[in-house]
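Give me structure tokens for this 325-residue protein.
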Amino acid sequence: MKEVFTTDGVQESDRFQHWREICEDRLVPMAQKRINDEPFEARISGASIGGLNFTNFELRNVRAETISRSLNHKNNKPEVLFISLVISGSVKSEQNDRAIVDFPGDLSVRDTNTPWVIEHAGHSEVLAIEVPRYRLESVLGPARGLTGLPANSRLPTTSLARSFLCDLSRMGDQLTPSAAERMASIGIDLITASLAERLAIQVPEVSYETLILQRAKSYIAQNLSDPTLDPTKIAAQGGVSLRRLQNLFQKSGDSIAASIWRQRLEMAEKQISDPVNIRLSLSELAYRCGFADQAHFSNRFRARFGMSPREYRHMVLSIGSPLVR
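Here you go.
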């Protein structure tokens, strides 16, 4: 990972002010204060691996709180969720009326759309990972149900996720672009599995019906490339009747079929926008995303994005930026 900021070499009396200026300019402005008179220290390093952004924070003795400018700031990213993985020390946080303390190996979610408070007492090191919001919410439900519910380091999946993500953040620059993308996707899957395991033991907060819905959404996300994926198959895999599963999706304001097609189109849009896939034919891309034929793919894509896949690819190559994220 590349170092982007450090208080090393900065006069002790100027360190905290220097840190606040960096946050204001390069990160997201927050209301910050030192929690004691001990020396303030901070270091930030970062890396982008397969489209997944990793940031390593080392902080000492600071309390930070989002303000209205934080949520409206140009650097805020409402389309992502931040995954906080504590490497050392401990981190206190509050969000959505939940207060928790994370210890080494614990994994938590920070929602960029709602205020939070975070406190680093003593020295702590945290690996923050930006994950596309839809990748988690499409499987696990709204972020509000995930914040303040840490996946403990003693959970098997969380322990596995921690090892994988830490290794990926250190070694990602040695991977080819295609390998990096595959590893980043695996990392997101491990994060999702860790949070799902944590939710599964949160009985009484999570009802049996919610678990059925989460498992169905997880199955959809993992099998989007299967052209035979349909509501009947999903219900059978979850061991429930099709009618019951349809009712559960309707209660959440969605439908099984709409969820499948929406996620397939999001996957297709991402792959079309990725320069790594520039030589991939649109018919092959359609097949990868679970579409039985290119004509069906083109019709669905045009209805969603207002242009054909070929036109969309040309637009991205021309302006260098996709329409959605």
